[in-house]
Write a structure and sequence with these properties.
The complex is a heterodimer of chains A (311) and B (517). Chain A has 311 residues and is mainly alpha-helical. Chain A contains 13 helices and two strands, in the order H-H-H-H-E-H-E-H-H-H-H-H-H-H-H. Chain A has one domain. Chain A has helices at residues 7-36, 44-62, 65-89, 94-116, 142-146, 150-168, 170-180, 182-187, 192-219, 230-240, 247-259, 261-267, 274-292; strands at residues 130-131, 147-148. In chain A, helix 2 packs across helix 10 (230-240), helix 3 (65-89) runs antiparallel to helix 4 (94-116) and helix 3 (65-89) packs antiparallel against helix 9 (192-219). Chain B folds into two domains: 2-248, 3-Layer(aba) Sandwich (Rossmann fold); 269-347 and 433-511, Rossmann fold (3-Layer(aba) Sandwich), CATH 3.40.50. In chain B, strands 13, 16, 19, 20, 21, 22 and 23 form a seven-stranded mixed β-sheet that branches. Chain B has a six-stranded mixed β-sheet with strand order 6-7-8-3-9-10, sandwiched between helices. Chain B is globular, with a radius of gyration of 25 Å. The chains are: A mainly alpha (311), B alpha/beta (517). The A-B interface holds A 165, 168-171, 173-174, 176-177, 180-181, 183-191, 308-309, 311 and B 54, 57, 59-60, 78-80, 83-84, 89, 91, 93, 95-100, 104-105, 107-116, 157, 161.
């Protein structure tokens, strides 16, 4: 059976959507954290790309997907240190530094990859999906949603964890205050710089995880510029969910599906011009921004450096 | 033991000095805060009060000097340090997070880690609000609270980690009279419980009313003190005189001269407002059928409690807000449909109460701020090119004429104090032949000396034939310079009446709506 409602089409659309969506969820979650703390992290794309390369090298070296994810996350975190030092501590312009991080990561990863792996194009270890009992047996959509590498489910767990942190812990409270009224946080005895540092480092970690997921679980190998704008897509998603991070799961999978539509259509044997389909995520972003963009919530002190002695 | 405790000062500042580039904010300050005492710190804007609070609350580090708390020498490195030592501060500008609830605001910075003790916090809130004798709902979002309530929350927070010293920075500036009265009760209750309260103000009467002891700051130095014994035993008039001398130095010229002069009976009517109305989303129209007629050189005072439509009226007159009906007539011509710029060209000027927001562009120089409303006009621009020399020359002249205290005309306007910034705005609006000037609270936040300068310059302009609408919440100012006065209440403007002595009572009744218009 061919066509839009065939099982193979829906199943590959859902499965591909999850694979493409998980990096958006990881990175979008990271962005949401630092935005709530008042740091607009435009370097997200660079942190993802760095994480992708770091994860690739780690997985090759240790022959392990998990070590790959770990080294990817750490690489993202190390890159985010630039942002911590320049923007949080030295009060540089967040947007300029963010763009520099992205451009720098693009250049460095392409150079390193070209110098070391360009001839061999090695592949990382194959990942083994874990099918969640019962849920993965749901007809049609079950295998698409519930038969993935554990790091995909981990993304959902992390989202709920961060949501809980923001809502019910002291750190979460401080993060929100650092973004909305940093002077209030400082006056109450909290440290704005400390909280923003923690937030940006978490962003680096999560962006790195997202980037290495692309390589380790999605593509299976690294090519230069492999993140292909997903970092920027994640920034938009983080703004659209307006601080309610649980919605990132829905938004991530939805945008992931639109990214994976080409493959699904080909698998289902439907002939649609590929360029048209490749446009879809970006058209979708524009439509969504038109519909909800006006209501997108941004913290009052977003992208403003914090100086204690100045009001 | 109890006696000894009472004798130990809560806080002693010894030889505190703090210098900023070009300014000595605090110079060799010695100050003692005693338990059970309200200590008023009085001084003009820029006298160094804010820096001193900053040092006490850990926001600012002194360059030299010693701080002792209960006899023990300490360093206050951060606001957290201060709070842990029982020094709590309520800042002039609200430092609550408007998007969080009362309870979460109180927990902010207290619980840094994972655990958020919301239940314990509720109990503590109950405890402190009983101490203050106020009621606060822990679950309401701070942004929804009235200013007086927010301040109560800030006081609660200041006392959260221990009740030692409470610093109140200009606490009455945002409050209604009722709110201020409640604040006084709260403060009295706190000192009777053994706290030391520091009350910072630039209003003389408040300092004397509320303080058990008054210290006067001028240009970063302590210039005098009134002890509790003096406050009790000497007449108010004597003390007032003395303190005025301390504040202003050698001569005391704070009392307003009688600025008002007669408007000639035969002067022509230049400015008329006919049945202006603006609908609003609230229960009352924003402007409800507002009409008045002004003669050349006349000053009409518009009194009223904030938020009764005064700002909206000013904006409609300036052309910044659209009126739903009615007409504005200048020299028998309707200017109702003219743009802001066209009204400017006709001589209509508006001095906003929002100095930092719509009044100036902070990072731009004084000179550029002065020509802000004349972009593209000759002689400052010619053939679309900026002529910096003529802008600077013009700015230098205005800075000189209006006695603006600034190093030169190229410094960013945001570096000026509120008073000097207001002088720049006045200089800008009054330059180049104004016909009708609308002032919205032109003396808001200014010290007594600048206030009287501003009022004098308004009165001088009027004598020179400028028609003036003077919006203010300070009845004393209105009575001192206006010819006639009307009261705004819920968008309605009362019939203007001639200013004469003893009129304040009647105006007060109109402002609170206790007599109908």
């Amino acid at each position: 059976m061919n066509g839009l409602f065939s099982e193979v089409f829906i199943s590959s659309l859902v499965s591909g959507g999850v694979i493409a969506g998980i990096p958006l969820i990881y990175a979008g979650l990271g962005e949401a954290i630092s935005e709530r703390a008042g740091v607009l992290n435009v370097g997200l794309e660079g942190m993802m790309l760095g994480g992708a390369y770091g994860g690739f090298v780690g997985a090759l070296h240790f022959h392990s997907t998990w070590f790959g994810l770990l080294s990817g996350g750490l690489t993202g975190m190390i890159i985010s240190l630039f942002m911590v030092v320049l923007c949080v501590r030295l009060n540089s312009n967040q947007i300029v530094v963010g763009i520099a991080i992205t451009l720098g990561a693009e250049g460095v990863t392409a150079l390193l990859h070209g110098a070391i792996y360009a001839d061999t194009y090695p592949r990382v270890p194959v990942v083994h999906p874990y099918a969640i009992p019962f849920l993965s047996n749901i007809p049609i959509i079950g295998p698409g949603f519930f038969n993935h590498h554990i790091s995909a489910y981990l993304a959902v767990v992390v989202v709920f964890f961060v949501s809980w942190v923001l809502k019910s812990t002291g750190i979460g409270l401080s993060i929100k205050a650092a973004g909305d009224q940093p002077h209030a946080l400082e006056a109450a005895g909290g440290g704005v710089h400390r909280i923003r540092t923690i937030s940006v480092l978490s962003t680096g970690l999560l962006a790195g995880l997202g980037g290495s997921f692309i390589v380790l679980v999605g593509a299976g190998l690294f090519v230069p510029f492999i993140t292909n704008g997903k970092g920027f897509l994640a920034i938009v998603l983080a703004m659209l969910v307006r601080g309610r991070v649980r919605w990132l799961i829905v938004a991530g999978v939805l945008f992931g599906m639109s990214l994976s539509l080409t493959t699904a259509l080909q698998l289902a044997g439907i002939d649609v011009p590929i360029d048209l389909v490749l446009m879809l995520p970006f058209v979708l972003i524009i439509v969504v921004l038109f519909a909800f963009g006006r209501r997108s919530y941004l913290p009052a002190a977003l992208a403003l450096p914090y100086d204690r002695e100045q009001r | 033991m109890v006696l000894a405790n009472e004798l130990t000062p809560s806080v002693e500042l010894i030889g505190i000095t703090k210098t900023y580039p070009g300014v000595v904010a605090n110079s060799d300050i010695h100050l003692t805060l005693r338990p059970g005492e309200v200590h008023s710190l009085l001084g003009e804007n820029g006298a160094g009060k804010s820096t001193l609070i900053g040092i006490l609350s850990g926001m600012v580090q002194p360059d030299a000097g010693e701080i002792r708390i209960k006899g023990e020498t300490v360093r206050i490195n951060s606001p957290r340090d201060a709070l842990e030592r029982g020094i709590g501060t309520v800042y002039q500008h609200s430092l609550l997070v408007p998007t969080l609830t009362v309870l979460d605001n109180l927990l902010l910075g207290v619980d840094q880690g994972w655990k958020l003790g919301r239940d314990a916090a509720k109990a503590r809130l109950q405890e402190v609000s009983t101490l203050l004798d106020v009621e606060i709902d822990p679950s309401s979002v701070v942004g929804d609270l009235a200013l007086g309530q927010r301040q109560q929350v800030e006081i609660v927070r200041a006392l959260w980690r221990g009740e030692g010293v409470l610093i109140l920075d200009e606490p009455t500036s945002m409050l209604t009279p009722q709110g201020a009265e409640k604040l006084v009760q709260v403060v009295r209750r706190l000192v009777s419980n053994g706290l030391a309260v520091v009350f910072i103000t630039h209003k003389l009467n408040e300092a004397l009313d509320l303080g058990d002891r008054v210290t006067v700051l001028r240009r970063g130095k302590i210039v005098g003190e009134v002890t509790p014994a003096e406050l009790q035993n000497r007449s108010r008039a004597q003390i007032t005189d003395e303190v005025l001398k301390m504040i202003f130095g050698e001569k005391s010229d704070a009392s307003y001269a009688a600025f008002a002069s007669q408007v000639s009976e035969t002067a022509d009517e230049t400015f008329r407002v006919d049945h202006l109305s603006v609908e609003g989303s609230g229960p009352h129209p924003v402007l409800d059928n507002v009409s008045f007629t002004l003669k050349r050189g006349e000053i009409l005072g518009i009194a009223g409690i904030d938020g009764n439509g005064q700002k909206e009226l000013a904006e409609v007159l300036a052309g910044q807000r659209h009126a739903d009906s009615g007409e504005i007539i200048l020299d028998d011509q309707s200017i109702q449909n003219l743009s802001i710029a066209a009204r400017q060209a006709k001589g209509i000027r508006y001095v906003t109460d929002d100095r930092h927001g719509e009044g100036t562009v902070g990072p731009l120089s004084i000179a550029l701020n002065i020509v802000l409303k004349r972009v593209g006009e000759v002689p400052f621009w010619r053939w679309s090119l900026v002529r910096h020399s003529s802008i600077r020359e013009f700015a230098r002249k205005l800075i000189h004429d209006h006695d603006v205290r600034a190093p030169h005309e190229e410094v960013a306007i945001s570096t000026l104090s509120g008073g000097n910034m207001q002088k720049v705005i006045l200089a800008r609006e009054l330059a180049l032949e104004p016909r009708v000037v609308v002032y919205n609270k032109p003396t808001y936040g200014l010290d007594a000396r600048t206030t009287s300068l501003v009022l004098a310059s308004i009165a001088d302009q009027a004598k020179a034939g400028v028609t003036t609408v003077f919006i203010s919440t300070e009845l004393s100012e209105i009575v001192s310079i206006c010819h006639r006065v009307a009261v705004m209440y819920r968008g309605k403007l009362s019939e203007p009446i001639m200013v004469r002595s003893g009129i304040e009572l009647k105006l007060g009744a109109l402002m609170t709506g206790s007599t109908t218009l």
